[in-house]
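$ fold --in a.seq
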Amino acid sequence: MRAVARQIEVGSLPESIAKFAPPGQVFLTAGRQYDVHAIAVFEGQPSLLVVDDLRYPAWYPAWLFEVVDTALPPDWICNVFREEPALVVGPDFVASDLAAYEGMVELAADRVDLFWKRVGSDAGGSE
């Protein structure tokens, strides 16, 4: 899956999106294509896990992107939780359970190691 960052005016974000994309904390380049490494729905808002311009794995609201390739890797799984996030789609080390997702959000060393191993093995990535 791939997405292109949209050109966004700082004050134009809907309130429901702005709380997940504070000014000065969005490190995306408009027009740049990003590989999507997982998807999560948190408080009703879909977010995409990408490697941002600081070269960190980061979750950003999907609203900030235009999806240009909807194909999902064949090993991705989907998990639904009673608590937030309501839905996580991605590789096992992100989506297997709530602890896996939370570890990726918090950039736990074991999750980040698995992430970089996977990203390094992806062929044809744009990052």
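$ fold --in b.seq
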Amino acid sequence: MLTQSNNSFGALTISRQIIDQIIEHAFESVEGNLWLANYKGAVSDVLVKIGGFDAIAEKKVEMRDGMLYVRLYVVSRLGESITENCGLVMERIARDVTEMLELPLGNIEIAVTGTVSKNRNIVKRDLTLDLHEMVNTRKISL
């Protein structure tokens, strides 16, 4: 159980699996350009070829001070706009969490740990994008 809220009708429990489904749904818009990975950027070549990054993906989802915080680790396809693709993912997650689940959103961070080259090799990257920073610089709007 991630969080529980009580009202006059009963209790509403939101589990980690619901947030995982929202994250999975958000990545559908950037399929083939951005994949979930782990914090080291380690993804086997077989997983790159079949697109099964989620098997080793590391997602940090937690409630702090009554707000939801999400940190994702991803790898990006070489030549694709990292800011644009991560922005699309963050927008979808933020919209689904705030509108569908009505949870207060603290922040979403996406750490780009690698770039997949044309010959399917992964080159290490170290770039972190933050929802608040992207909204403040007007790269995305909520």
